[in-house]
## 1
Amino acid sequence: MGVVGRDGFSSVKKNNQKIKFADIAPLRIYYPLRRGDLPYMITTNDLRPGTCFKYDNQLWKITEFQHVKPGKGPAFVRVKQLNLRTGSIVERTYRAGEKVENIRVESRTMSYLYHDGTNYIFMDNENYEQIGVSEALVGDRAGFLLENTNSTVLMHENEILEVTPPIFLEVRVVKTDPGEKGNTATGGTKPATIESGAKISVPLFVNEGEKIKVDTRDGRYIERVKE
């Protein structure tokens, strides 16, 4: 076994003779690898909603997971998985214990600044770096991007995979038909455009210029915001 002497050189004993590594080759120190240093494999038994992995050269995130043990035959895993590059969702069945490549993803909080005609420009709140995200990647979520409001940006090895606006957003109604005062009938709605650009349905009593709270996941009206 190697030891470090007072002269700072590592050495070993061979045939009862002390030999310095410095006499043979430069000393190199190897540190154990951490999981984030190299790709590592997980099995389909490890998959859970939210797990991100690489398969068929594509990056996926599990949205639904079910482990099935049939009466006859081997167990299998049935999932719904989101393609993090295209946004498509597919259903797939894997063999129980089948190996897939785990990937490391990072969520960053970034402030949406503006749209330059081609890309949506965000600023990283930690290092103030500005990045552009394509319209294709942002997709329908663009309708809920409000300037100077934080969004969550999912990244893998400096590749932007997903942009998610805050779940709840307080915005002004910029276009809708005149409100019907006193009409609070349940279920009565009308179309409206909010300042971030999305078109949603609002109750009949809501007027232009009013601020409302919206659920960005489905565009659902929540309530009017008191000012």
## 2
Amino acid sequence: MKTGVILISHGSKLSSGNDGLFQVADMLRSMNRWDMVEAAFLQLAEPEFSEVVKKTVSSGANRLVIMPLLLFKGNHVYRDIPEMIEEEKRNYPQVEFVYSNNIGADERIALIAADRIHEVLVEKQHGNRERIEQPQAIVNESFEIIDKLVNLDSVPELHRPIIQRAIHATGDTEYAYNLVFHPLAVETGIRAIKSGKNIITDVNMVKAGITNGPVEKFGGKIICKISDKSVVDEANRLGKTRAIAAMQQSIHEMQDGIVAIGNAPTALFELIDLIKKGLAQPALVIGIPVGFVGAVEAKSALKNTTMPYITNTNRKGGSAVAVSIVNAIIKLAKEGQ
């Protein structure tokens, strides 16, 4: 089945008022999750809804998802768009029409609003205060700002410092709602650190960012084999990524330890396969690879395992996030000595 997505918005006489819809369509198109993504307007601008339906059906779509890019439910959402869809159903009875929810009062909208408010206040205040140059003062103020931007009162206490550090490392408040924790993840990670178990990383950038002093003091090591000659040779022989070979060659070292993956979805896929086969037995998997190819799918696969994990729900992630999560767990382990 070929799926087309049609974003529909109100429309404006000013072209600048319509540009945003085309930009969002481009963003969705770049995700490569649907066969086609188009934009349409209810009035005052082109293309009109019926024109876009005709275009997508002519391009071979036999299922159309109609997504109203409207913030709240009003007459357009309740009446106008459903009536337009019913008319197009009569014109194209062979096509399945699916009407999605509008944006709605979503916490992510509140986070964006909070960011915008904070940005304009910072711009207004810039130059009216002394520049902060002390490292700890910068960190302290950063966390004060994060506390104002996101409300973590409903989040389990052990999860809060991890979320805060992920936001601090990226400047992205989305991590307040899209980090996903196995119920035993944090406790398991703390126990692994305090028991002197190793931390395995997928790339050297993650290894370099992890605070190694406390880990070594507890008796563990931070290990990354991505550049080992044996890994390079094996990857070349198999025609696969070095990240895959590195996971295969780290099975012994990761026993009851932590595996932190911030870069390579192939590393996470391979680790999951090794776990399912009973060949790898880490205590905790931090699976936060970034990318357009395989990242979301690998994270989804991780969430379907029984292994304690920390991950997120989209293509975002990266070495900085993986490092921030590991370092937050290390800090919790130190505090609980």
## 3
Amino acid sequence: MYDFMKLTERDQEILTWIARHSFVTAKQIETAFGVSRQISYRILRKLKEYEYVKNELVMRTLGLFYATEDGIEVAGIDMTPLQRVNNLAEIRHELMINDLEVTLMLEAKRQGQDFKWVTSREIKRRKYKNAERIEGSNLVKGQKDDLPDAYWLQNGNTAAIEVELTRKDKKRIQEKFKTYDAELAANRIQAVFYYTDKQTIKNLLESQRGVMEHKSRLIIRDFPKVGE
């Protein structure tokens, strides 16, 4: 009769968005949903009070927000709660994927185009839903995690998204490119986008595209500045 934990439509949208990701920042919520810092923190405070989200402080200043089991249930999505916040390199990688998502999302909205972003957690959940997991982690026993960082769906096409921030050896890059080449040949995806913030990594990726038959559908770009 008395619903003291009522969420507004916007609260629900933000909770669902958080639950689909490993973790997000308040700034990313502000940018993605076009709300002020005051409003974003008010919503996050409510979600924390309801125990739908938790937060951790990294490097004393960076707040990461992630959904609890109750929050995921309220969001109505099929996902397992985050087991732990990872090391700093993985945190940076996850947050830059989020930044890229927000940037592309805002651009699509400006152009009036429909779109969908499938997060890495959603990709892994679909592939490994019934697999045996390594205790205390999000990893799967016997499985090499070689999935894209995200999928971007727009205008009936699907693009695999990779955010490459560290230098990989050439053999590993070639193996990944060949995997994507097979996906392109089977028309399961229509393009592959690599984003990096380092020119040396961009040059390395460009130097290996020759192993692909469908190399014209491999697009390598500089990581955009958030807000551009």
